[in-house]
Amino acid sequence: GNSVTQMEGPVTLSEEAFLTINCTYTATGYPSLFWYVQYPGEGLQLLLKATKADDKGSNKGFEATYRKETTSFHLEKGSVQVSDSAVYFCALIGGGSQGNLIFGKGTKLSVKP
Amino acid sequence: EPEVTQTPSHQVTQMGQEVILRCVPISNHLYFYWYRQILGQKVEFLVSFYNNEISEKSEIFDDQFSVERPDGSNFTLKIRSTKLEDSAMYFCASILDQGRETQYFGPGTRLLVL
What we know:
By secondary structure, chain A is mainly β.
């Protein structure tokens, strides 16, 4: 079945450091891929998405490229800020699905000043 | 900006009791979802709902669970007889149209079963 695996956290970085959170997936067909973010005390918010191979999603300085050959959708940001501290979830909607998201376990990011 | 709301934010209940978790989706959205996240684990799909009926459900969504859209605004998840393992954060989500669209999530209800 469809599944998402993302790197375990927590990840602690200093401000302005480079961020990578790895995400790989298993899916039948052609999934759409998402990164959601959950700030403390809030719900899940879409950060970015990509719906086909080689698409790059980007938002707020974050980027992720849909790599079909490596079944990956790694999240990157060149210079993190304290305000980026949150839990990040990689997710997919599988080909043929009725739209339910399949999530990874989440990676908690803490950015220190 | 319109948002999905959920009540209550926290609920504590005794094992065997019934609980109803409430959600108000974005007003013009047509598809509704419930997810849950047991502490430290991944967010899991429970059920999707469209046109006043369940369109898809996971194996977690057994006979103890039910969903309802009792009026034009609320979308509820009922757990008939709670178990300890139902303790989790429950998220509601909605989308305008089916498929690969962005799902808008509520802030969640943290349920603790004692």
